[in-house]
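for the writeup, i need someone to sanity check this before i put it in the appendix. the sequnce is what the collaborator sent (i think, or maybe the updated version? ugh). structure was predicted straight from it, no edits. if anything looks off just tell me and ill rerun, i have time this weekend
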Amino acid sequence: MSLDVSAGAVLVSLLVAALGTQSAVGRALAVPPAEAIRPAPPPRFGRGWIERRRLFQRLAPSGRMLLRQMVRRPARTALSVLGLSAAGAVLLIGFSFIDIMEVLITQQFDRAWRQDMTLSFTEPLTSDVISAVAHLPGVLRVEPQRAVAVRLRAGPRHRTVAIVGLVPQPELQRVLDRAGQVHQPPGEGLLISQALAQLLEVVPGQQVDADVLEGDRRALALPVVGVVDDALGLQAYMTATALSRALREQPRVTGVALQVDAQALPALYARNRTLPAVAGVASTSAMLRNFRALMAQNLNVVITLNVVFSAIIAIGIAYNSSRVALSERSRDLASLRVLGFTRAEVSLLLVGELLLVTAASLPIGMVLGQALGSGLMQLFNNELYRLSYEVSWRTVAWMALTNLAAMLLSAALVVRQLHRVDLVGVLKERE
């Protein structure tokens, strides 16, 4: 961790702490010493806007006292709501990574990469290999591919990528954008990733130069006919026939996507080990298992940290708010106990205020988390992956339950202190 990041975090923390204490310290310093040592005059209260509402008059006495206390200190109530909303937003972002990864998995492994296995060859082979692969054990469907490494150039900007030639309407390995729409490879020109188009600063209709990095290393001039907002890597697609025509070669195959009978997989793996032309075998199910295992390792850390941090924020804000309210209203609450209110009714005046503040913070936390999460995804997106911010109702429910649990823990701590208040001692204190 760099020194400037650490120093910045410390300075921001000190600044926030200073701003939080400025109001109270300012009020204390503004009072002359001779006046400060005298008891404070009792506050003057009048009927506020909420007390003139008909619905307010229908509430029970405890409910009226609860709402009156919140409305008479709007700044403190608003800051408590905002603080708990920030805690909820942090938690929502942490939990949402599960939804983001699930959307990515569904798009790539269920809808885009629908093959069971992909074979890659040591060198480009003739199209006769398609028939040979189709006769391997358990193979139900074959889709050939032709990939060639090129350096795409547009003026001074360039990127090294692979142009992938697909069948005209692929069913096993499809081109899918982040919105779930399927794009067909063009018969002429290139269909490229939107991220690649932005890096090269080209739009559909413009032409790019492609320096082939294999074979006779010929130079191609190819038009960009479309862009696709895909999720992974920098891609360039066209039909295999158009790619062979551009390379001035007979149709070649560098890999095949296979749909395989699951019961014949062991025999197929054993047969592939004996084929010298096969450079590698990629199992889609194995890729998915490895991806989930990797994501689980990283996401567990991220989610744990977010839960801990957001819980600390929520508990700190809720406990501080309730503790201040208990300090200010201890005489009033003791008086209510003497007048016959039960412990539960008196506790409700503190816990109820905290519950209302927490309930008000949940929708604001959802909106704030959505805005922050969308912004973070834009910052995280790069040439390797582009993620869409997704939040499910299950994630929202976990965020709400965690915030409520933090509120209940804070309420339990404050209620415990309330029950320990010496009623006689508090009532003997001078105003």
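The chain has a mean pLDDT of 85. Residues 62 and 348 are 8 Å apart (CA to CA).
thx in advance!!
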